[in-house]
Design a protein that fits this description.
Largest sheet: 2 strands, antiparallel
Mean pLDDT: 93
InterPro entries: DinB/YfiT-like (IPR034660), DUF1572 (IPR011466)
Protein name: DinB family protein
Distance between the termini: 35 Å
Shape: globular
Pfam family, one: DUF1572
Strand order of the largest sheet: 1-2
Number of helices: 6
Helix content: 55-70%
Number of strands: 2
Organism: Paenibacillus vandeheii
Radius of gyration: 17 Å
């Protein structure tokens, strides 16, 4: 397997893992829990999912594909935002499909192509790595909120813990 193929496989695998783990956590909660805010300064799970979605559409749709940037980032963190579980799952499926299909469509040389992000030139590879890190950070927040809501009834999303039960 050549290095580029390995990179594409690793990136796709990472984003599929993030997507699937997000859905495993979200599936355990009801609409009110998904929109629960532990304090005024905290985000809800719905806020975080909508934020990830906005980031995907901006970084991939706008950055890689050249679509018009229509992101309203501040709205992603609105305290009035209330999103149902069904809609959150649909948003995850749709945005991660764009992300993963976009990676599948890339050519080797595309990984080193630069685009501007926040006024800085970044390679598509750098952007995808930053996205994986960013979404993983928010995934951790989402799982923490899930555990906070469910306590001992939380079902782990980790195969390792299930494996050692």
């Amino acid at each position: 397997m050549e290095i580029y193929e390995l990179i594409f496989v690793q990136l796709i695998s990472k984003f599929e893992e993030i997507r699937d783990t997000l859905k495993k956590g979200i599936d355990q909660l009801g609409d009110d829990e998904l929109n629960y805010r532990p304090n005024y300064e905290s985000n809800t799970i719905a806020n975080l999912v909508v934020h990830i979605e906005g980031n995907i559409y901006q970084r991939i749709g706008t950055g890689i594909h050249g679509h018009q940037d229509i992101r309203a980032r501040d709205n992603e963190f609105s305290r009035e935002l209330y999103v149902s579980k069904e809609e959150l799952i649909n948003r995850i499926d749709k945005s991660f499909k764009l992300l993963i299909e976009s990676i599948k469509d890339l050519e080797n040389e595309d990984l080193l192509r630069t685009i501007e992000v926040r006024g800085k030139a970044k390679t598509i590879y750098e952007i995808l790595q930053q996205c994986a890190s960013h979404y993983s950070e928010h995934l951790g927040q989402i799982l923490y909120l899930t555990k906070l809501c469910l306590g001992s009834s939380y079902n782990t999303t980790s195969i390792y813990k299930k494996h050692f039960k």
